[in-house]
Amino acid sequence: MSASPRPKVLAYYFPDYHADSRNERWFGPGWDEWEVVRAGLPRFDGHRQPRVPAGGYTDEADPAVFADQIALADRHGVDGFIFDYYWYDDGPYLQRALDEGYLPAHNPGAVEFSLMWANHDLLDIFPRKDLVTPPERLKSGTIGRDAFERMARHVIDSYFTDPRYTLIDGRPRFSIYEVGAFVRGMGGVQEAADALRWFDAETRKTGLPGVHLDAVVWGFAVLPAEIPLENPAGLVAELGFRSASSYVWIHHIDTSLHPFPAGGPWEAVGDEVFAQYEAYQDELGVPFHPNVTVGWDASPRVAADAAFTRTALPYPPIWDPTPDDFANALRRARRFCDRAGNPYSEVTINAWNEWTEGSYLLPDTDNATAMLKRVAEVFGPRELAQPSDDSASALV
Prior knowledge:
GO terms for molecular function: hydrolase activity. By secondary structure, the protein is of the alpha/beta class.
């Protein structure tokens, strides 16, 4: 569909479908987020809940399970996963999917991986008790310089030199989800810039040319409220970011202006989102890489006995696009990349497996592999694809 080079297609991976020691302390032995998925229920006529994974409620920390996912991604033109990577003041969280699932899988070279530091507050929405009371904060996403250096040191030593890690111009790709929280934790913009220069210098000690820092941007203000916004391009440059990207479409719209509980046409959301994307490309001073979101339905993260209503704390409505709606959004993202003409081109997808947010590429019992097939149709096969592993057939 385009004479321009094929963008790299990277899907966000949310690693909460395995047993984790913190989760077990908070929620009980053996808990994982499949429990929330199973408890989903329809909130209005025609609401598609619960969502049921076609491959079953698997343990992503099992390398055989992850090998199936890798092969499925490879067959459908997904070049890699961006793992949501958690590290708080006292260390890592939800690491086993990457360390025990992806990394030792027998076909890991088939798709690459990178990290997005998910440095947001961890709130108890597993499930949320109601839509009026703010959920309990389990961990703060704002950490200081010492904790940041421990995380960065671990990332450099454990992941950056892995041959499967995503590189841009030779630099390992590393996203920061909440730039504002990072700046606040470091003590200000100058201190944050110094920490990121240290991160880059430590990366260069491995023989790599440095780190490719990617800023995840949010909403109409472009960057979170903690950061001065008079000169976004200057700020991005001062912090050393080489690109900017998006995590999910609802970060770029005013959800209160859409109908509730069903949010209306997905294409209309895309109109708002891509208008924001064009602005980011113009004003940030670095390449902006568009995101395509599969859908949005976080209702399973609200307790079954809670009233599902719009409140003084506006809760996003539900969007359940068709596979063709999703394909149209993918084509829009590819056209965006063609117009931008950046030397390196990338499209992110939310998400590979955000089951409790209704945004996933993995097959379910309603759509089977339809969402994945749309990725393959729009972007074609991976340019560096390795032979696929037929062990993924159980998920098809």
